[in-house]
């Protein structure tokens, strides 16, 4: 008898506690920057595409929902010709973000991507690419890579010596 | 056998090897860079260090490079000793100080030996904080990409290119910490084996440029074991596909055929598969639109052929199964080989020689160990490139005897080359024009095919009395014949190489006589004959009537309809004859890969799968039957030629074809129908073959994008395609261990992602694959009986106002399919006719001027190239090159008088 009354009392007290439920969608959930939600492709500080089409995200993906094709512009800079994520398969594990050597692919705190039609959950590059550096501002992969691209010749990257003069006789 | 102790565990190993080879053969992972199983050791990279101990009590030991230390009985070494491990880790850390942060944009990534070795040694954190060295790259032509920053100075590239393949335009420049591997200036890498640099380079300095244009990582490729289709040698290749297009060809090790390497035509000639000129739909010319579905096309064929008398034209570049299916469909008496008359006779003769010769018909890799070689009438680099590479190694056999005498192991490459210098063993070449192998030959002779045959016959008569003597031989020819016969008699493993490319039966007969004469005296004598196409020998074994009788059958109304299998008749017969034939035939059904002149005239065109979309068996020049497998499911209506033919046969209710369903049914029927093909089923496991109940996957376990690659069409994934013809699956599911050697789709082993993983599949490093190398020899040896050929040709005599046309070949350009690939087309020469200076002067011509001549009523107008290696009175015509029409040569050409230019100029009357 006592336990019943005690339970009722405790339940009644909960009416005065702080609410865990929020009135979504009028009220938005507080999400932290590293929350793993929607996947985006970011740009580097020069607003160039960060993705170089290295296929590591696709290889890391446990549900194989990323598919892309790397290509090159006339200056040798690599970018994905297409980049497709099938969000109806994605489990938001964030492995792709961990695998990405250029900070291109990032999971952002946004989950509002529900669709009535499953086909609409297939995102192409135009749906994924944003005009921002995302969580990792300042990083520019091509500034540390050895490949020459448009606007950055050999030996012009960070911590690089100018190209060797093969014909030099100086020891 | 010697006993060695590795980390106190005794192992039995073969003496004569080095410790690195011994460790790798035993399955112990030991990192290395500069050592290569085909090229030996130089001890340049210091990566394979191990500790060797004096005896059991020695605890200190000393560090040695395992690739430089021979196996000794009771030697004690340690791979896991902490100091040795630390040493290896330091070495790779040094190598990595200047290596760029490039893996994400590097084509080698995922199949990179440097990545593998870095992981293996445990170096995973870069401590070097200073500036990195950089280099400018070079343009190296359409095949290879150069990214010199990535170099780790292992010297493998120059050792392969210069020492092994005999190239002249790649070298190492500059000094100390900024050596540079490249050409002396930007330009196309000239050697025909340059593509192997992409595999030989342990990192991404040299990478496949054609792959870069549709880049895919190794783990994402759907791969299948295949056989190269671009010459008769049958080199083994792995073909890789992604997103419905063929992406890359890599060499597939076969210890008896091609070993580690393939030529550039084989590696880069694959792009015809992705060509926009591909036939992708069945076409019925009477329909509008012409492109129809499979069922409509078959319905149409049934309607047209039901009452018709059909003949079939086979193809030397189609598989045995396709040719046999056509033969069964049209009946033996109506089956014609799709070869020119001359080729047909030559290949038949080659087959007969191979069957009868008392000499050993050797496999290609054995050519490497021949110690005296005589090549008759072949420009190997252009007609059978990989054989040229092996012949180039064979000239080292004789000088290497000194190395053995000096107690230097043969794998001590630097020491052996130092001792040998540029000495070469006996190699004799008698060819129509200069060949690339001339530079390592002992004696060369450039002559007309008849003169080559006469030289050959006289060599044979000097070796054996039974071979007919040659009369009226010039003194210098006699001297050369004497020199050749002496060298061949002195050799332990002499090898005679000839083939069909000179277009002369006499040359083949001369080669057969020499081989037989030598074999009387020396059981080690070998013979190799090259044939024109990848399945020429298979087609010859299958047999069929001459192409001419097909033309006659239609002309004389013995037949109404013709089925042409994977063949462009304009390349094998005279244009006017073909035109008449195609016009006269009521129905012309062509099965082929690409739109070409013959398909343009066809009434019904069926899209046939290339080697990448079909399974089949090819018989190479030594009579080895090898299976190639479909790489990816057939796009649209493309299917194997034999499958089309079975479907036609079923529609026509042909009794012999109605029971056939898959490839195994045809091979079984073929093996049953023809004694020669006995054992054909043993070429590869049947389609029902399983290991632990599973198929062998064509895709790696890392294969990515399965649920996204087709999601743009439909988010629901389709059922994975099935393969009824092979024990291979099109998916990544299946047995993960080592499959039988003939169905290895790609080489991979844990920790070994690059091509270097092949040693895990070998019985011993550089030896045969486990469970035997793929392929079954269909020619039984030794031959039953050989009768010496007695018809020695007359000496060649120039004719006034005539030139004797002889065929010339180009590795890039002469072959029908590879020329469609843009890279190969870029390297192909423009059409020309080659004559010597003396003839040019006689006809008042200079280089670049047009020579007008007629052969059998066909008129040629081709720019002249001066080539003084061409015998006076003959002219070289590059057969098969686009822009050079087919003509049955060797033949006499009538030269039209060159009109002097002033006649064409308008006369000015003042």
UniProtKB/TrEMBL annotation, chain A:
Cofactor dependence: [4Fe-4S] cluster
Enzyme Commission numbers on file: 7.1.1.-
One term of GO molecular function: quinone binding
InterPro entries: 4Fe4S_Fe-S-bd, 4Fe4S_Fe_S_CS, NADH_quinone_OxRdtase_chainI
The protein's enzyme class: translocase
Binding site residues for [4Fe-4S] cluster 1: 51, 54, 57, 100
Catalysed reactions listed for this entry: a quinone + NADH + 5 H(+)(in) = a quinol + NAD(+) + 4 H(+)(out)
HAMAP family in the record: NDH1_NuoI (MF_01351)
Protein's UniProt name: NADH-quinone oxidoreductase subunit I
Organism field: Adhaeribacter aerolatus
Lineage: Bacteria, Pseudomonadati, Bacteroidota, Cytophagia, Cytophagales
Encoding gene, per UniProt annotation: nuoI_2
UniProtKB/TrEMBL annotation, chain B:
Cofactor or coenzyme needed: [4Fe-4S] cluster; [2Fe-2S] cluster
One example of a Gene Ontology biological process annotation: ATP synthesis coupled electron transport
Domain 4Fe-4S Mo/W bis-MGD-type: 221-277
Keywords assigned: 2Fe-2S, 4Fe-4S, Iron, Iron-sulfur, Metal-binding, NAD, Quinone, Translocase, Ubiquinone
Catalytic activity: a quinone + NADH + 5 H(+)(in) = a quinol + NAD(+) + 4 H(+)(out)
GO molecular-function term, one example from the UniProt record: NADH dehydrogenase activity
Keyword Electron transport among record annotations: no
Claim: NAD is one of the keywords in the record: yes
CDD domains: fer2, MopB_CT_NDH-1_NuoG2-N7, MopB_NDH-1_NuoG2-N7
GO CC annotation: membrane
A Pfam family hit: Fer2_4
Residue ranges of domain 4Fe-4S His(Cys)3-ligated-type in the record: 83-122
Family: Belongs to the complex I 75 kDa subunit family.
Protein name: NADH-quinone oxidoreductase subunit G
Source organism: Adhaeribacter aerolatus
